[in-house]
Design a protein that fits this description.
heterodimer; A: about 550 residues; alpha/beta; 20 helices; 9 strands; about 45% helix; about 10% strand; globular; B: about 350 residues; 8-stranded mixed sheet; about 35% helix; about 15% strand
Chain lengths: ~550, ~350
């Protein structure tokens, strides 16, 4: 392996056998860095060059590296070091223009933060608005509250013990259900209901346990076989995501990536897999309006369930968005596509124009396509790929609720929703918003616990699995950078509670509560080359001119 | 000075394996970007660049982890427990039982390094290190996510350490030993700033009558106004510069204070003797021979000895800072053995 291996004779405890050339260095992988063993020398050399360059550059150039340069995928050391090196050498050749990062390497598209027009977008408590406007630096944040008095600690300890017994009972019950021993399971439900009375059900384990006990009992009894009507779901969804940063994080991050992908295109088209109230789009419209060189023509196709009562809800939302666009002079066209299930949508319905830059946006939708065989996900990903989008933005819950074993699924869900409920509690005290938000979560929990087969639509899967699917379907990652990360962090500051955190993971961003990731945002582009999969059934529909 | 920089780079490359050199050099350069000359810190970029891992209740290589957050303070502790072969997937009922009813199981309260400014309990390098500690020592480990500078200066880190220690001592499920003798067998451990935190938390514990069985200070971060011989000799040679050390002390100590503040220099002109503080635990102090701060670390050892306290010095002549992050060198294995023996006094360990 070269001189360096002989130099640590005496300290050496080299790890045999040497890994093959394309393998990652296992120890660096454990530290969170992906470097091929065969690239170690290269990275080392680049690090040396980078250090020399930093030492010999004027200090304003180096500080620009930190403050203005957008960083991407820091786990990939080779490319991260390279991008810094090229920033520095570029600045060296143009010493009078230190802020020329926007025209540097092709891996770092320019950053243009989205306008935050709070009044149009969200209802935020007024002190939070002040916080953003004054750009309060972290060092001036108020100190954390003093530790609780002794008595409260004692109560917490007690609660912990009862809470632990309750969780134990829940697991046992789920196991009984998995074994088919419904009689015993039912008896345990009664016991647990009684246990609930001895703990605090306003917060913590008591709160979420109540919903799980309820879901288990429905499953045992065989009730709850009809999914809630989609419009009720929509209202609750709206409240849930209004009271927590999850949806806002998803929108901000996706919009930033879409904005960057649309650079230089005059005709752009966004397909939203679930329009809901169209909350994501005013910010993108405004950002496009502010684009240097003027806004493009923006088409938006919104998919949503058919309206039950003769109204055309999709069209109404579209009209609202058209009004926003008109007010900022963005040429805009909207089209609604009504479909009760995503798998019923056919690509020809979307009327994609080959001359436009296309963005496909899916917020918490694709997991619904992971149902029982034949699962529609592959054919849907295939037709998306066939549309040749510039970008696909994907946001999904970061958890595996699609395991076949009931106990495994139940355990994951208990842990996941405990964390989500904890975060809600800290973030939102306003009623009735909080109650409605919790009802939405209760619906998700019920769907995961009570239903099977086609009715079980909340089939969340973690980012690692989505990466596999997207890679197989002919996509490659579009990395979200430090600018998106920074904006996400700033967004979190609006929620005047500590505990939310954003993490970068291989070019994707994950939002979590106290280090537990809860949702993941990623972006994808079409891999070059021919379509990797055979076209799905019904291909004739796709190729027909509309 | 470009010429001497090149010499320095080559030197450090000769004494560590290549992947270690890449890891620590990467940190060095990234950290150079994050520290601003006005004393502020680019926290956003730091969090973006830091490689983090979530906790995992599914045992991996015999170790599972979970996070506990104190509702009132927001302080997060990551708990690492060992699992045994054939044990079913960890159930919450285990949280009611002690770690053992037959023998003492050490519980290591771990404070990660980062010069009070960098890293977190869920940083990949520290998650990995804590897992290794569990495996090697058969211990439970609780890694404390203490508040960092410059946003939170002295004494926040020590406060959080003290809070974490009290929390650990009060967990029934961290107890071990025969039923008559069941208690939490606590050791404090930390690297760099974490080592510094260990000392100060141990002092507070001793003064309050809270039992700590031992302190493990790995490459601890101490300093003083004076420039010591090792600082002058090793400045810039092995990843670390005196200038960056100064920056971190300015960021941690109260504004206007100098490095003879007792937090930084506990046995210095403004420090105090620990003589008579009988409950102060025995200490294991690990000093890398190529760490420029070693004269302060050795002075600390001297200070403990002069106060009549039990201290073992492990001096690793050819080790650089951060040698313990990757298990690819002898120093790492020597260190792990020492720690194992230190927290398992009943083991029949060879005296070195």
């Amino acid at each position: 392996m070269g001189p360096s291996s002989t130099s640590h004779a005496g300290t050496g405890k080299l790890i045999p056998p040497f890994p093959p050339q394309t393998q990652l260095d296992g120890l660096l992988a454990g530290a969170g860095y992906k470097v091929r063993s065969s690239d170690l020398h290269l990275v080392a050399q680049r690090l040396e060059s980078l250090e020399s360059a930093m030492v010999s550059s004027p200090s304003h150039v180096v500080s620009h590296l930190a403050s203005d340069t957008v960083h991407y995928n820091p786990a990939d050391l080779v490319s991260w070091v390279d991008s810094l090196l090229s920033e520095l050498t570029h600045s060296h050749h143009h010493p009078s223009n230190p802020s020329s990062s926007s025209s540097s390497s092709s891996t770092s598209p320019p950053s243009r933060p989205l306008p935050v027009d709070l009044d149009d977008l969200f209802s935020v408590p007024s002190d939070a608005i002040n916080w953003v406007q004054s750009e309060m630096p972290l060092s001036q944040q108020p100190p954390p509250p003093p530790p609780p008095p002794q008595q409260l600690t004692v109560v917490t300890t007690m609660e912990e013990d009862s809470g632990i017994r309750l969780v134990h009972a829940l697991m046992t019950c789920a196991e009984l259900v998995q074994r088919g021993d419904l009689h015993l399971a039912g008896a345990l439900v009664d016991e647990m209901t009684a246990l609930l009375t001895s703990i605090n059900t306003e917060c913590g384990i008591g709160k979420v346990a109540g919903y799980f006990i309820d879901a288990l009992s429905r499953r045992i009894v065989g009730a709850g076989s009809v999914p809630a009507p989609p419009h009720e779901t929509e209202i609750l969804y709206h409240h849930f995501y209004e009271t927590s940063p999850y949806l806002k994080f998803a929108h901000f991050t996706a919009n930033q990536a879409i904005l960057e992908a649309f650079e230089g295109y005059d005709c752009v088209h966004v397909i939203d897999f679930s329009l809901m109230h169209g909350l994501q789009w005013p910010a993108l419209i405004q950002a496009l309006a502010l684009r240097p060189g003027g806004p493009p023509l923006l088409r938006l196709t919104g998919i949503g369930p058919p309206s039950p009562d003769g109204r055309d809800t999709l069209r109404e939302i579209g009209l609202g968005l058209a009004e926003v666009a008109r007010s900022v002079n963005v040429r805009f066209a909207f089209r609604g596509v009504a479909a009760s299930r995503l798998e019923d949508v056919k690509p020809w319905m979307l009327q994609v124009n080959p001359n436009e830059a296309l963005a496909v946006n899916s917020i918490m939708q694709l997991h619904k396509l992971l149902g029982p065989d034949p699962t529609p996900i592959e054919s849907v990903l295939s037709w998306i790929r066939g549309l040749n989008p510039k970008i696909v933005t994907l946001v999904e819950q970061e958890v595996n609720h699609n395991q076949t074993g009931f106990l495994d699924r139940f355990t994951e869900a208990l842990y996941y929703y405990s964390t989500v409920f904890d975060s809600l509690e800290a973030a939102c005290q306003i009623q009735p918003d909080k109650a409605l938000a919790e009802m939405y979560l209760q619906m998700e929990i019920c769907n995961i616990v009570c239903y099977e087969g086609a009715a079980r639509v909340e089939r969340h899967e973690p980012l690692a699995k989505w990466r596999d699917r997207f890679n197989r379907a002919g996509f490659r990652p579009l990395h979200l950078g430090s600018n998106a990360f920074k904006q996400a962090s700033m967004l979190l500051m609006l929620f005047s509670t500590e505990g939310y955190s954003v993490e970068e993971n291989e070019g994707c961003l994950r939002l979590g509560w106290h280090s537990r990731p809860l949702i993941a945002a990623s972006a994808w582009q079409a891999s070059p080359g021919p379509l990797p999969l055979p076209l799905p059934m019904g291909a004739d529909d796709y190729w027909n001119d509309d | 000075m470009a010429g001497s920089n090149e010499v320095n780079i080559n030197e450090s490359k000769r004494v560590v394996p290549l992947n270690t050199w890449v890891l620590i050099s990467n940190f060095k350069l990234a950290y150079n970007l994050l520290r601003r000359s006005d004393g502020t810190f680019n926290r956003d970029l730091a969090e973006y660049l830091d490689r983090k891992v979530p906790a995992n209740t599914i045992p991996a290589d015999g170790v599972l982890s979970f996070d506990h957050v104190d509702r009132a303070t927001g302080l997060l502790n990551r708990v690492y427990l060992r699992t045994t072969e054939g044990q079913p997937a960890w159930g919450f009922e285990e949280l009611e039982k002690p770690l053992s009813t037959t023998e003492a199981v050490p519980v290591i309260v771990f404070f990660h390094g980062g010069s009070f400014t960098h890293s977190s309990a869920n940083s990949a390098i520290y998650d990995t290190l804590c897992r290794r500690l569990v495996k090697t020592c058969g211990a439970a480990v609780v890694s404390v996510n203490y508040r960092r500078s410059p946003e939170h200066r002295y004494p926040c880190a020590y406060e959080d350490g003290w809070t974490a220690l009290k929390w650990v001592k009060s967990r029934t499920w961290l107890r071990s030993g025969t039923p008559n003798d069941s208690k939490v067998h606590v050791y404090l451990a930390g690297d760099s700033s974490g080592g510094n935190i260990c000392h100060h938390v141990a002092v507070r514990a001793a003064e309050a009558g809270v039992e700590v069985l031992g302190n493990i200070l790995l490459q601890p971060m101490f300093g003083g106004q004076e420039r010591t011989e090792s600082e002058k000799r090793l400045d810039g040679k092995y990843f670390v510069t005196v200038r960056d050390r100064d920056w971190y002390w300015r960021a941690y100590l109260p504004e206007g204070e100098d490095r003879d503040h007792p937090a930084c220099n506990p046995f210095g002109p403004r420090g105090c003797s620990l003589e008579g503080l009988i409950r102060f635990p025995k200490s294991l102090v690990v000093v890398p021979g190529l760490d420029l701060v070693q004269d302060w670390q050795l002075a600390y050892v001297e200070g403990l000895r002069k106060s009549g306290h039990d201290v073992k010095l492990l001096y690793l002549k050819e080790a650089t800072i951060g040698f313990y992050f990757l298990p690819n060198n002898d120093h790492f294995y020597i260190l792990m053995e020492e720690i194992k023996c230190f927290v398992n006094p009943n083991l029949n360990c060879q005296k070195r």
